[in-house]
Amino acid sequence: MRSGEIRALEWTDIDFNNKVIHVTGTLSELQGNIFKGTPKTRTSYRDILMLNNVYNILKRIRKEQTTLKFKLGDKWKLLPNLKDLVFTTERGKHISGTWLGLEVRRVEESIRAAGQDIEHIYPHSFRHTFATRCIESGMPPQVLKTILGHSTLAMTMDLYSHVLPNTKAQEMEKIANLF
Questions:
Q1: At 15, is the pLDDT very low, low, confident or very high (cuts 50, 70, 90)?
Q2: 173 compared with 74, residue with greater pLDDT
Q3: Which residues pair with 47 in a beta bridge?
Q4: In the predicted model, is pLDDT for residue 18 greater than 90?
């Protein structure tokens, strides 16, 4: 999902019974007002099936958030028009793109402090890595296009076709015996 789509998720977008995430909007800001706006394109409205680990994480977040809301009472700071967000700060405030970037940087720094080298990661890097791994594992591009919410297959392939040269030799080997 795109950063704004993740940050705009509301609990009503999460279907635990069918293990589906409904992407219905993106968190937007206009003249200082934060709101759930329409997705980037018509095809950005989509349903994404939850893997079991995502299901378990969202269940845990729901439980922790419910506990926090109860403990904080009127100190829970969600905006009036965004009362049901899945991802919030510890005080219930919406998560900004800047905040998300700072959190990723904090994780990077802890990895470096543990003695590991890591390149700088942007929040969008996770989406890019997901798409790359899907292509490498053989996911049909049309399926990936739908999951990512791209409007055209060409967009998906233009963005992620660089992955294909890495597997070119393997693919050529598959057809070598045909000739």
A1: very high
A2: 74
A3: 22
A4: yes
3: its two tokens: 């950063």
Among residues 4, 6, 18, 19, the alpha carbon closest in space to that of 53 is found at: 19
Residue 31 has pLDDT above 80, yes or no: yes
Domain regions of the chain by residue span:
1-121, 122-179
The CB-based long-range contact list for 144-148 (8 Å cut-off, 24+ gap) reads: 146/43, 146/46, 147/46, 147/48
Contacts of 21 (CB under 8 A, 6+ apart): 1, 9, 13, 14, 15, 47, 48, 49, 50, 54
The CATH homologous superfamily of the domain defined by 1-121? Intergrase catalytic core (1.10.443.10)
Contact in structure between 65 and 42 (CB atoms under 8 Å): no
Structure tokens given for 118? 């890591």
Q: Which strand (E) or helix (H) includes residue 35? A: strand 33-37
Counted residue by residue, the chain has a size of 179
